[in-house]
Amino acid sequence: MPLSSPNKISLxxxxxxxxxxxxxxxxxxENNPSPLKxxxxxxxxxxxxxxxxxxxFSALTTPNNGITRHSSPLSNxxxxxxxxxxxxxxxxxxxxxxxxxxxxxxxxCEAVEAIHKSCSIRYSLEELYQAVExxxxxxxxxNLYEQLKLVCEAHVRTCLExxxxxxxxxxxxxxxxxxxxxxxxxxxxxxxSIFLFxxxxxxxxxxxxxxxxxxxxxxxxxxxxSDKVVEVKTVDGLLRLIERERNGEAVNRQLLxxxxxxxxxxxxxxxxxxxxxxxxxxxxxxxxxQQLMQERDVPEYLHHVDKRLNEETERLLHYLDQSxxxxxxxxxxxxxxxxxxxxxxxxxxDNMLQENRIGDLMLLYQLFTRVNxxxxxLCSMFAVYIKKAGxxxxxxxxxxxxxxxxxxxxxxxxxxxxxxxIDVCFGKSEKxxxxxxxxxxxxxxxxxxxxxxxxxxxxDSKLKAGNKEATEEELEHLLDKIMxxxxxIHGKDVFEAFYxxxxxxxxxxxxxxxVDAEKSMLSKLKQECGAAFTSKLEGMxxxxxxxxDLSLALKPYMQNLDVAGLIDLTVxxxxxxxxxxxxxxxxxxxxxxxxxxxxxxxxxxxxxSGRKLQWQPSLGHCVLKAQFPxxxxxxxxxxxxxxxxxxxxxxxxxxxEEILTATAIEESELKRTLxxxxxxxxxxxxxxxxxxxxxxxxxxxxxxNEEFKHPLFRIRINQVQMKETPEENTSTTERVFHDxxxxxxxxxxxxxxxxxxxxxxxxISELFNQLKFPVKPTDLKKRIESLIDRDYMERDKDNPNxxxxxx
Length: 807
Description:
Blueprint: E1 7-13, H1 17-31, H2 35-43, H3 50-53, E2 65-69, H4 73-77, E3 83-85, H5 100-116, H6 125-137, H7 141-165, H8 170-194, H9 196-200, H10 202-205, H11 212-225, H12 228-246, H13 253-265, H14 269-295, H15 298-318, H16 325-336, H17 341-354, H18 358-368, H19 374-394, H20 401-405, H21 407-424, H22 430-444, H23 450-465, H24 472-488, H25 492-508, H26 515-529, H27 531-561, H28 591-607, E4 621-627, E5 632-638, H29 639-646, E6 653-655, H30 656-663, H31 667-678, E7 687-690, E8 701-704, E9 714-716, H32 726-755, E10 757-759, H33 760-770, H34 777-789, E11 793-795, E12 802-805
Parallel strand pairs: 1-2, 5-9
Antiparallel strand pairs: 1-3, 4-5, 6-8, 7-8, 10-12, 11-12
Helix pairs in contact: 5-6, 5-7, 7-11, 8-11, 8-12, 8-13, 13-14, 14-16, 15-16, 15-18, 17-18, 17-19, 19-21, 19-22, 23-24, 23-25, 24-26, 25-27, 25-32, 26-27, 32-33, 32-34
Family: Belongs to the cullin family.
GO molecular function, one term: ubiquitin protein ligase binding
Region (Disordered): 1-80
């Protein structure tokens, strides 16, 4: 029950002035006696109530104040009457019993010691809590706090002795320390619950004083852990446990977690443990890295590094403080990765790339990304590998024509492999993509013109084969991949020349498997190199379309002439500026063919006056009807082949010289033609040759092969026209060089016309920037001399290294 009832403050109406003053004086006398009189009354036991003589501290409360408003009936009758606030004084606090502080502390001290000894407490926790509250209410908080601190400190000091006397092994010592720490924490939690009022009032109001829990931590830190013997044994024991775990042994992780959390709670984790732990880690992995780099191959080493990083991350999750994460992982990365970057790359990167070890390369990239310069060094070595492997494909096959035929396919496969590695293993990193592009451009142009020529021939083979080997979607995808290689080559004019030559044959011999694919390739080239690059190629397609229209108009014209004969004539009109240059060739045609040529000539010139037609027999092809003893066949042959075969209508045996005289075909071309008819596959040998052999020699005799058999009715034998001769190749290459000379001359004149005066070095530099094909400085110098001789420019009289444009 409370020692005093609440005081009341009454607000009353003011009656007469005298009455108010008198009442006020009486109330002041009653409620505010003089200090001396009040002190005597409080000291006199006769003046105390029973509750004051025997205070019940369990129910001690602080008096409450109340404000009550009373309204008098007179206030309503007198609207202007003044009101007055009357305050009654607090009643005095009850007197503290004798020995209150000593008795209360004795109870509390007894309870604290019982907690330290893990004994039962005689008093209820509510009673102890109320005792603390009462002492705090009577301003004994500071003394109470100090007494509590002394008792706790004495107990903690007794714990220290057992650690100094303990001679057990380090693991038992750690268990003993952990047991003591856990007990101390439980005890401080219980003690704090009893002294909670002290903690929430006195301690909270004094910022310089530690809370009861922090005081307990401080006492344990100051009296136990800060002892050098205990600290050294604790840290060394923890490091030995972690070392055992790193060596593969199973250890008590819960013990490690508890003790490391203790060090963290005591705020000595960094200074006492972390520094030594990181030093030990550094030594361990430095020695391990050196040893394993010598003993293991690179993939095994990388997997070991990954395993170690995962182990250390797991330790951070289980018992290490998270503040250790950054320095710990950095230490492992430094000693196992950063210190061995060159060795890892030199020892294992080429093999992993060569063997396409996707998983190992992915792990390598992930580990190298963790350290500074790791990704940069990996990218540099990756570029070195691409250049080295690319040179093996492009340059090492230089003297082997058969391997040259496989070069483009090998380049495409190599590019696919590298792209897959970048996408899957290197996270599509832009650095690696740029390194790949630069490396491909580097090695593919070390053999100046051949890659461009071979890429053009590869496109030709795919556009001839077309849908027989792949679907339209697959062919389109292949053309996209070829265009990627095309972007890397410098000699795009070489590609254009060979592509134009092969395109002409595909169009004229009807060998193109897909017109859509042809036009798609043309569109890709136009998008890549501009309209000027493809203008002639587009002109070739336009000529073919016009020729089809012309052939449709020719049929009714010939029907009107009533021309007798079995020849179905088709003529392609080619614009010389669009198509490759062909050497004029005169051969002896049968009279029927000559007659049809004249009819067409008259028909065409009747439509287009002022034009000149020049026949190209080397581009013609025919379909002959042949009667063999086994069956009748249709032979699809070139014009030259047809001229040779038609001779056998008059005889079964002809010599090489007789055929040469009768046809007037150029000798090298005739040998190729006869070789295709008599020395090809056994199923395609329309003629037989004596003596047998692959080569055609003077004096060879040729026979009509009466034993010829073939399952098909129409047989294609004109493949000889599609094959490129060495002379053709040389001629195409020479035309490219001649065109380049004209382009160089035009570029020099264009630059000099703009700049008027220029030094030799600056002119050469400008030419390198403008020309889109590889060229040597010596060749540029020759073209400059040629232009000086032709008075397009002149040397400066005072400085021969300067040139002036001659208007």
